[in-house]
Each structure stands twice: as structure tokens, then as C-alpha cells.
Design brief:
Elements: E1 17-26, H1 28-34, E2 49-57, E3 69-73, E4 81-84, E5 88-89, H2 96-100, H3 103-116, E6 123-127, H4 132-144, E7 147-151, H5 154-162, E8 166-168, H6 174-181, E9 188-191, H7 198-205, E10 211-213, H8 217-223, E11 226-227, H9 239-248, E12 256-261, H10 265-274, E13 280-284
Parallel strand pairs: 6-7, 6-9, 7-8, 9-10, 10-11, 12-13
Antiparallel strand pairs: 1-2, 1-4, 1-13, 2-3, 3-5
Helix pairs in contact: 3-4, 6-7
Length: 286
């Protein structure tokens, strides 16, 4: 059961800042933690990304001052205060809800593209790319100069095309559809689909080491493909500054599908668990 409770205030340590939280992004990991899929003891807080106003600056921090508006990753962010070890300033064109939607999706997308070594002139296939990570990965790859093909449902196709992607349905016959779109082949594949497609994606890429999945972890080892995630991955939080620059340039956007007051966190998690989202869910802290 989810409920709002009183806990001791956190405080910024060395190389950290504390923010008064305005918004907190909702991610699948939140309901997975609650249901025991991620290990650890319960009860525990939720919320792994926030935006807000800096009110404490720790020792050895020189790039922010109290009153600055920032966004970044955290733990237990669905609260009045959150402590951040990584952050970026919120672009002037973005509100708090939009900023809170970014950190996890930006980091995951940037890390995945780096592991795949996606570069200008390549063709990248993103399988199941209509969600937050796929949305950001599409735009980051386009910014790198790659050609991007995304599998998605028709209801998300127009939005993905507006980012510079080509869109085709996922599911049966995918390899044939990709051959029609890219007769010379696909250089890299980023998989975030529901599972069961890795064998076909390896066939499309021609090399299992050119395929990375962040969703079908159980089948990854047998398919010989790359994976990323978990506690052993090197995080790319430095990508937040680059994302802020792209937002200011009009080259990156991540839609917020719906906002909820903090007291309705259970409703937000329920919708998150149902899936099939076309944008981020965000909690507003007042």
C-alpha cells in the first residue's frame, strides 16, 4: 500500500545539493520496487528523478547557488526535499513537470547509444520506441546524425516522425519490413520492446553484439546480445547538461502525459504499471 508519511529531512553532504521538490517523475522501477521485484526491504520511499529549487549547497559544489532551478536523479524523490549528487539547470523553455520527466530517460538513452557506438551515417533500429527512453533515444540518435527507424503503434507514429524517425509496426514480419526500408541493412538495434523479438532483431542486425536490450534481460544471454542496467552499469548523468542544451535548441522534447498531486501517487503508479504510455507521468509536490 502506498501512503504519504512523515520522515526526517535529508540534508546535502559534500558534493551534493538539496532541492525543494516541485515535481517527481514516475518510472516502472517504482512499482517494481513496491512489488518486491528489485530486492531490498520495505517500506521504502519512491521517486528516482526530480526537479526543484536549490535550498542547500554542500561543500565542494560551485556551479549552483540557492534559488537555482535544477533537475536530476535522486532516491526517495517523492517528498518535500531531495538530495542530488548529479544535476543540470532547467532550460528556460521547460517547466518543473517537464524537467522532472527527463533524468532517467536521458541517462538510459545516452548510455545505450554509447554502448552501441551509434554514430553519424549509421542506421539505428529502435524496437518498441514510443516510450520515454525510446523518445529520447530517437532524438539523441538523430542529433548524432544517424538514420533512425522506430517500431511503434500507429497512435504514436506521427509524434515519432516529428522527431525525424521513420516508423514501422512491430510484430510479425518485422524483418521483411525493415529490409524494405533499409535494403543495405541496419547497423545497430536498441530493443525496449515487450520481449520475444531478440532472435529476429539479431537477424536484422547481422551480429548479436550490434543489438542491445534494456527490456528482455532474461533472453539476452541466450541470444548473445548486449544489455545495460542494474547496479553495475556506469551511469551517464553527464548527459543531462547536453540534453538541456538540445532542449534550448528545440532538438529534444519529452511529452508529459499526465500529472498527479503527490497524494495521488497510487493512481500514478497504477497507470504506470498498465503501460502503453505516450508520455511521462509526473507527481507534483506542493
Amino acid at each position: 500500500m502506498l501512503q504519504v508519511v512523515e520522515v526526517p529531512e535529508p540534508h546535502a553532504g559534500p558534493r551534493e545539493i538539496r532541492v525543494v521538490v516541485n515535481a517527481c517523475g514516475v518510472n516502472p522501477v517504482d512499482w517494481k520496487i513496491r512489488q518486491g521485484f528489485m530486492g531490498g526491504d520495505l517500506p521504502r520511499g519512491m521517486g528516482s528523478e526530480v526537479s526543484g529549487v536549490v535550498d542547500q549547497v554542500g561543500d565542494e559544489v560551485s556551479d549552483v547557488t540557492a534559488g537555482d532551478e535544477v533537475f536530476g536523479p535522486t532516491s526517495n524523490g517523492a517528498a518535500d526535499f531531495a538530495v542530488l549528487s548529479h544535476w543540470a539547470h532547467i532550460p528556460a523553455t521547460l517547466d518543473f513537470a517537464g524537467a522532472a520527466a527527463l533524468p532517467v530517460a536521458v541517462e538510459t538513452a545516452a548510455r545505450s547509444l554509447d554502448l552501441l557506438e551509434v554514430a553519424a551515417g549509421q542506421t539505428l533500429l529502435i524496437n518498441g520506441g514510443a516510450g520515454a527512453v525510446g523518445t529520447v533515444a530517437t532524438q539523441l540518435a538523430v542529433d548524432r546524425g544517424a538514420r533512425v527507424i522506430v517500431t511503434a503503434s500507429e497512435r504514436n507514429a506521427e509524434r515519432l516522425r516529428s522527431y525525424g524517425a521513420e516508423v514501422t509496426p512491430y510484430g510479425e514480419g518485422l524483418a521483411d519490413r525493415i529490409r524494405e526500408l533499409a535494403p543495405d541493412g541496419v547497423d545497430r538495434v536498441l530493443d525496449m520492446g515487450p520481449g520475444g523479438a531478440l532472435a529476429e532483431l539479431v537477424e536484422i542486425a547481422g551480429d548479436p553484439q550490434h543489438v542491445l536490450t534494456i527490456s528482455d534481460m532474461q533472453a539476452a544471454a541466450g541470444a548473445g546480445v548486449l544489455t545495460s542496467g542494474g547496479s553495475t552499469s556506469v551511469r551517464r548523468w553527464d548527459a543531462l547538461d547536453h540534453a538541456a542544451t538540445l532542449i534550448e535548441q528545440g532538438k529534444l522534447t519529452l511529452p508529459v502525459q499526465q500529472t498527479f498531486p503527490l497524494e495521488q501517487v497510487a493512481d500514478a503508479e497504477r497507470l504506470s504499471q498498465e503501460g502503453h504510455l505516450s508520455g511521462k507521468l509526473v507527481l507534483l509536490v506542493e
